[in-house]
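Subject: Sanity check before I submit

Could someone independently write out the structure tokens for this chain? I want to compare against mine line by line before I put it in a report. The sequence has 292 residues.
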Amino acid sequence: MIEIGSLAVARVLEAVGDPTPLAQLGVDPASLARHRAWLSPAFADAADSFCLNFQTWVLDLDGYVVVVDPCNGNGRARDMPMFNQLDTPFLDRFAATGFAPERVDAVFCTHLHCDHCGWNTHLRNGQWVPTFPNARYYFVADEARRWDTRRADYRKVDFAIDYNANVFEDSVLPIIDAGLAELVSADHQIRPGLAIVPAHGHSDGHCALRVDRGDTRLWFTGDAFHHPLQVTDPRLSLGGDDDLAQAVATRERLRETIAREGSYMLPAHFAAPHAGQVAIEDGEYRFRPLGD
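---
Independent answer below. Compare away.
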């Protein structure tokens, strides 16, 4: 559990990705050198690389259990080798948080890329069935339409490999067919203190999840940020965005809001300590990890 203000949030790790050069974000050497003191070692190793964490967040809001971004899932046919036919102990790790899948009340996917919705389902007797059978799954309607491969105008991701191949079929459509999906607007309130907020750009319907409890506010920001340097320079991008200009504007808006509120951001892929706040230091925004 990670204690954040008045809330305790569980993190379920599925996998840690291979090192990715920071240069892939587009960061220049001078900027990297200027920030190295706080980036190292969690967010920049000796080779100037970083590793994405593939992780799911779980929180208990007075007995109402919410799962955010349920990772990749096992046994999926994916074009990208790092996601293909995974076999991880994710469900064992999930159980270790103290929450059984049957206890989950709500599942929210910030977007429907393969690594954010895979464990929506699991394979049983050759069929993809809901992993959280008593939950309502909240999909932003525009995002569901974006990835609905049944559409005549469906477009693949703008990437060398279609990493989202088969995702709608094995991780989204079974939830819709089971009658567990809530197709909602991009500014939907799930319940008091739990709201979906537009954060478009990385994908057409990408959204954040905002949690308010007392004086504590959490922002589950999905893939609005892949690395802390994007808080400082929102123009940096790992690629794969539906609309880069909109993704940059989303990062600018979120960092300003999180800094102004004194709230906490919990991105989908940051390394330990995985979450933090946003501060303005020497006239620029900076991600401040928990415990810093």
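---
OP: Matches mine. For the report I'm noting this point. The chain is about 20% helix and 30% strand.
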